[in-house]
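Hey, can you fold this one?
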Amino acid sequence: MPGENLSRDEARTRAGLLSVDGYEVALDVRSAVGEPEDLAGPRTFRSVTTIRFRTSEPGASTFVDLLAPAVSAVTLNGEELDPAVVFDGSRIALDGLSAENVLVVDAQCAYSRTGEGLHRFVDPEDGEVYLYTQYEPADARRVFANFEQPDLKAPFRFEVTAPEGWTVWSNREGARTEDGVWRFAETAPISTYITAVVAGPYHYVTDVYERELPGGTSQAEGSGGGTTLRIPLGAMCRKGLARHFDADDIFLVTKQGLDFFHEHFDYPYPFGKYDQAFVPEYNIGAMENPGCVTFREELVFRGKVTQASYERRANVILHEMAHMWFGDLVTMQWWDDLWLKESFADFMGSLSLVEATRFTNGWVTFANNRKAWAYRADQLPSTHPITADIRDLEDAKLNFDGITYAKGASVLKQLVGYVGRDAFLEGARRYFKRHAYGNTRLGDLLSVLEETSGRDMKTWSRSWLETSGVNSLTPEVSYGDDGRLAELAVLQDGDTLRPHRIAVGLYRTEGSELVRYARAEVDVTGARTVVSELAGAERPGLVLVNDEDLTYCKIRFDEASLETLRSSLGSVTDPLARALCWSALWNLTRDALMPARDFIGLVLRFAGRESDIGVLQMLHTWTRSALVHYAAPAWREEGGRLLAAGALRELRAAEPGSQHQLTWARFFASVAASDTDFELLTGLLDGTAKIDGLDVDQELRWSFLEPLAAHGVADESAIAAELARDDTASGKRHEVRCLASRPSAAVKDQAWAAVVESDALSNALVEATISGFVQPSQRELVAPYAPKYFEAIERVWSERSIQIGMDVVRGLYPSLQDPSSALAATDAWLAAHEAAAPALRRLVAESRDDLARAARAQERDAR
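Sure. Predicted structure:
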């Protein structure tokens, strides 16, 4: 058998052969506590699965997916099969199927330390053990035997035998019965990848959501009779985080989101209860398991954070909630149409954030932050259409990217403008009712939108969903003898010229502000479009194409507009317009059209006036990247001094106790470059220095300690002392990062071996070690590892889980080395490994593209 990388063709064949009536899954996780009986092997748990399914071709053969160390018994229709014969480590072969079948698989499955499958975490603070599952796209087979593909939906019944004193949660309501087993109600038909189990001594808080439903609305599952929809709410985290857990705010956003989606979707929440679990060592932001959503616990804030962090958490909560309809109720048939859930959840998450919560500037964050992720992904050699060609599960894993999420959401935002908001939402309502508990493809959504809008969706889809790449829109301006606009045209470039509905804004200086005084909406088609509505307007200081961020494109400027921004960017009064200008300038820098030192200079001049804290944090991220990757090597040291001095200046000038002060403090620590800088950080840690209003809490202490460790100012004893102050799971991750960041060849050898040569570290500690290992100030120290990287990555990819493989291949790529030598080494590896796994080659090619971009930017900056 081909193994664990299920192909699309195999999935289609199996879906055409089978229909699944239901699963009964019994897990015994009492082995999660205490010492494992077999110290030489993985810690395992018992998993017994009963699958009832039918086939349209009696006598046919198929297979069930299972990744497990051992299978004790397999019974098909009462006949015992020899596990040694039918199980190959990833699949169980089934031959001679009946029209109706009952399969029972008794297996020993392994607890995970990589965040894939059933993850087991031991809290160093109190020794408590916590479990949770994470499956997308195909890791349910690490926990129970199943048909691991999204279009073989079925009802599930879970039961879990857990240690005494634990609580267990799953997708549906459950309780501990007299025999000590937790039993859960049967789910609606759902896909395997969104089933869930969370178990352990979690801190759990409850609430209730209630809503009066209009007459005639069908009742949601589990909502009871009458016209009142009642949804039990729960939220949980580790006991060690309970003192930081602001469940009230989580419930507030949850209720606001449920109100919004009920109002606009006209389909009551269909999955009974709504639990939200914040879990340790989580690989992703969150996962939309119906009735039991899981989130990374870093969204429980241990210290003071800015409003942007609360906004980000609210957006994630709403994103996952939108999935209850887009993804869980109606699910894509195969991962080609992943956008049918992720793009919609990303768009609806932002829309509900702005319209239903206190975060009314959410579209500013979307324009400045989310779309930056999309622009990068869409310019890589691995760029793909939003509707992608997903050949297998490895392809699927890598396509949870900026195109599927942020570009897809941007395109949907434009689609709302194209078909109209009412037609879009009515299309969604029909889509849910027509395909509830089923699976869909692109055409199913397009057909309902054509019904509700009367627009040609196929042409729109070909332009936006079925092509790749990003267009650039540039204003072309000419003036008459009177100084007024004679003609303004928008030039479009890119491999595919698309239709764009955009707003063009004209800005002028009024007093000390740069404000918009004229605006026109226009449909851009082809290479050049004239904006006739603005002819004769007063000469602008700034022409902003895609004002209000109506389309997905890179914005360019004419020379006069660029000069205006160089002198007056901080005077742009509208937060969204200002964010769009910053984003455009960053794209110019990435595209080697603006020197990195010019971008850094603009940040030093104007970032202190940025009112939107999310934009400011993004500027700090971009600026550090500009210095590390895009600045000419000869200027890098001077640029670092300028940046550190500017950050300290803004830190001291910020309002005491404000979120801006906190943001500048973190940025200053990340760019600290001199002995004087390090003395200040040391003083802030030991109390001999003080900045009025700056509360140096535990999280900020770690932010100050890491650069001290990376520059050899803080040694191992100082790191150990800090861990003693914060002997928690979070503190342990910080400690590992700081230890790996020390400027020592022996330290780097130890860190490399811990990640590449051993699988002893958990996923979270692998991530922390890699982060500490790669320090921009230690380019010469890590240079010897470039050849080791290319020698190791194919072995790592084949031996480790795909998550750890991705972390190693991306995180340890020699991006800090001289571009010419690193690019040559990359090209040599790609040429010599044409038969390597396509997903591995894709990751290496993407890293190569980032480095080639950096080389072009460095050359531009040097000029």
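The first strand starts at residue 18 and ends at 28. Let me know if you want another pass with a different chain boundary.
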